[in-house]
Amino acid sequence: MTSGFFGDIKPARYEGPDSTNPLAYRHYNPDEILLGKRMEEHLRFAIAYWHSFTWPGGDPFGGQTFERPWFPKEGSGETMEHAKLKADVAFEMFSLLGAPYFCFHDADVRPEGDTFSESASRLDEIADYFATKMSETGVKLLWGTANLFSNRRYMAGAATNPDPDVFAYAAATVKHCIDVTKRLNGENYVLWGGREGYETLLNTDLSRELDQLGRFLSLVVDYKHKIGFKGTILIEPKPQEPTKHQYDYDVATVFGFLQKYGLEKEVKVNIEQGHAILAGHSFEHELALANALGIFGSIDMNRNDYQSGWDTDQFPNNVPEMVLAYYQVLLGGGFKTGGTNFDAKLRRQSLDPQDLLIAHIGGMDCCARGLKAAARMIEDKALGGPLDERYAGWKSPEAQAMLSGKRTLEAIAARVVTDKIEPQPKSGRQEYLENVVNRYV
Ligand code: XLS
Ligand code: NI
Ligand code: NI
User: Fold this and answer.
1) Whole-number Cα distances in Å, 432 to 197, 316, 376, 397, 428
2) pLDDT tens per residue across span 156-203
3) Which residue among 53, 147, 300, 341 has the greatest number of ligand 1 atoms within 8 angstroms of its CB, and so is best to mutate?
4) From ligand 2's centre to the CA of 270, what distance in Å?
5) Hey, what CATH topology would domain 33-380 get?
6) Maximum alpha-carbon separation in the chain
7) Are 339 and 351 spatial neighbours (Cβ–Cβ below 8 Å)?
8) Alpha-carbon distance 358 to 363, whole Å?
9) 365-387: buried (b, 16+ CB within 10 Å) or exposed (e) per residue?
10) Is the pTM of this model over 0.90?
11) Would residue 105 show up in a list of annotated catalytic residues for this protein?
12) Where are the domains of the chain?
């Protein structure tokens, strides 16, 4: 028995690039082998519970636009029956899409209780409900997380709150969410510091708050080891929104923070396309930097509007951008415990159940096209070849000696004089390389 929400829509199948069926895949072909691995295992798609099933379609100027059978009637609160119906529909959608994973916050899946214990026991009840559905459908948990930003108790932050009781409440919440994530065999646990930042320095002790955040993360890491949770702890950088300034600004900032608190070997990053743009970077910049620093973990896939200046969380539809993103993912050796989570939501006028499917199908196809092109670029050494050539000079024994610390500054200076070194500039060939990429797109 299904909920009937999606009517008689059949599971989406791969029909090839010429299909005009809006509910079929044209590029996402789970069994296609790329670089020796199935496409499904490369991409590891996950559906975000919050955007598709919890968000009502509101914006700063208006409320709910979506009518969903699992939304409470106006003026009344969400019940566990609503939450279970929501779970029924969610798992129906995961199956219709053939999505292997999902992700959730505690607050997405259960109504908040009057006390901490009531909220926790409701989450446990839903986790049991999920466990049954996961074994029935084969859908797995990519990551779990706690919502430490919506409730008013968190308005001044969770770990970075001036009130230690909020720190404690957040710690208890994360402990329980990690327990639930472990119970559901989640492959990662995410901490996005939504309100771990400030509105004004006039009321903020920045140095103290950073220490609080460092302590909080250390507690989480210790606990993970204590209970034998094998998943990866991931921080999701974002520069601002909802706070004016968020401490986990971008990949570079997070790395510096991790190093300061001795956690750079324990914690990796979940990089979101839209957050990279908000930080003034490209997505591929953030991915390349995380690879370089050894902290790449997972991605939140979406697309930001380039004019709006906030987190618009649209579904990706720009293939050239996806090519460069998956190129970096592949260069780093691909996902280990991470995957491609659609942290993306419909536009608020997209009211129909079908819109939910079409949005994800289009997004998955866009990622698949990007991945396919990136894999071919790697096979052909399309960029790798020219890159090797560009740095080839560093293979010489003298260059190696400089790099490995075997030459002093004086020795290098002396050699420039004796060898009469006069560097000859060479073209960076940017336009040529851009044209090469476009051959694959
Ligand atoms: C918000 C974040 C959030 C995290 C999970 O901007 O992207 O959705 O992914 O808390
Ligand atoms: Ni996100
Ligand atoms: Ni986001």
Assistant:
1) 43, 27, 18, 30, 9
2) 999 999 999 999 999 999 999 999 999 999 999 999 999 999 999 999
3) 300
4) 8
5) TIM Barrel (3.20.20)
6) 84
7) no
8) 8
9) bbbbbbbbbbbebbeeebbeeee
10) yes
11) yes
12) 33-380, 396-440
